[in-house]
Write a structure and sequence with these properties.
Elements: H1 26-33, E1 45-47, E2 56-59, E3 65-73, H2 80-97, E4 101-111, H3 118-135, E5 139-146, E6 151-160, E7 176-179, H4 185-193, H5 199-209, H6 215-219, E8 225-230, H7 235-247, E9 250-253, H8 262-269, H9 275-284, E10 288-289, H10 296-303, E11 311-315, H11 320-329, E12 336-342, E13 347-350
Parallel strand pairs: 4-5, 9-13, 10-13
Antiparallel strand pairs: 1-2, 2-3, 3-6, 4-6, 7-11, 7-12, 8-11, 9-12
């Protein structure tokens, strides 16, 4: 059964991948960046590219720092308005992942003008604008080009107190890990591309991909929260591995505690997943230890690319209930403790 759309065309027919699943694979990206010149950086640049964090942070004065990020991708759904909403949510959530507060955005637009009706493009932009309106920030400009595939996203800007910046490299030994959203968006997108995703499955997909990670701003103010990131294109295992490497610690995941979208689990058990999941595993699987006999669908769930995925929090175990309560305030009912950070060689062990 096809998911609903009012669009006269299927947006996903234009793209070879969709959402954060079209990210360059981790191994390829590392190779591309391997010879990037290392220059002397200004001390005001609090966060740059050194730990693959969610956004750059530049300190302006004692009480203010700018948070800057950009995120854009090809369609993950066919409905133009939903595509715009998902892309905008994904971009703005990087501001929350650093503990910041969004202040304005710029649009990044690439459209195949000979193939794409103008009304469809308008609906994509309107979807992104609707999310910015909900956040209370303007789309203050942007840039557009004629492309072979539809591309949409935002440059998002925010502010944060320098003392409240939460990096993905600040985890401490003994920390608990909390995940804010359930996994499975990439798997649902694969079912959608096959034309088999139900209306209920589509609704769940849109529900989670358009839910902003607003608790991030409040979590950053909690002294016991040591590291924050959001789970996107590299999957849960990949983004947790970034925390482990940046913090020089080992991470342990308890698989049965990980929240999952019900329909996504059902599709994964049937063997439906994205090509990006395999590329993710090829890029970092050597640093992920799996228990003997683990079902293949479980490994695919760990590497499933999440578009607009949940916040992953590393915090003092004494405040886990408080962290989960902050998620609950904003309607993240699936937030759960899923593992721990421990001394050891950087890597991820699944139990």
């Amino acid at each position: 059964m096809n998911a609903p759309t009012d669009s006269p065309i299927r947006l996903t027919q234009f793209s070879h991948g969709g959402g954060c699943g079209c990210k360059i694979a981790p191994a390829v990206l590392s190779e591309i960046l391997a010879d990037t010149p290392v220059r002397t950086l200004p001390k005001e640049l609090l966060v740059g590219i050194e730990s693959s964090d969610d956004a750059a942070v530049y300190q302006l004065n004692e009480s203010q720092a700018i948070v800057a990020t950009t995120d854009f991708f090809t369609p993950i759904v066919d409905d133009p308005f939903d595509f715009g909403r998902i892309a905008a949510t994904n971009a703005i959530s990087d501001i929350y992942a650093m503990g910041g507060r969004p202040i304005f955005a710029l649009a990044v637009v690439g459209m195949p003008l000979e193939k794409m009706p103008l009304e469809v493009i308008r609906r994509i932009l309107a979807g992104g604008e609707s999310v910015c309106a909900d956040v209370g920030i303007p789309v203050a400009g942007g840039h557009s080009i004629d492309t072979l595939e539809p591309i949409y996203g935002l440059v998002a800007l925010g502010v944060v107190h320098p003392a409240e910046v939460k990096r993905n490299s600040g985890a401490k030994a003994g920390d608990a890990l909390v995940l804010g959203k359930p996994l499975g968006v990439g798997i649902l997108s694969a079912a959608l591309k096959k034309g088999e995703l139900s209306r209920e499955g589509y609704a769940e997909m849109v529900r989670w991909t358009t839910k902003l990670n607003t608790p991030g701003t409040r979590l950053a103010r909690m002294a016991g929260v040591h590291a924050l990131t959001d789970v996107t294109g590299f999957g849960l295992a990949g983004h947790l591995l970034e925390i482990a490497r940046g913090s020089k610690l080992a991470a342990t995941l308890e698989f049965d505690r990980i929240p999952m979208i019900g329909d996504a689990r059902a599709w994964a058990e049937k063997g439906v997943w994205t090509g990006a999941s395999g590329r993710n595993w090829a890029g970092y699987g050597q640093d992920v230890s799996l228990p003997a006999g683990l079902a293949e669908w479980k490994q695919k769930m760990l590497t499933d690319p999440q578009t607009s995925g949940g916040l992953l929090v590393s915090c003092d175990p004494a405040i886990v209930d408080d962290v989960i309560a902050e998620f609950r305030k904003d309607g993240f009912g699936d937030a759960a403790r899923i593992g721990t950070m421990e001394p050891g060689r950087p890597g991820v062990t699944v139990r």
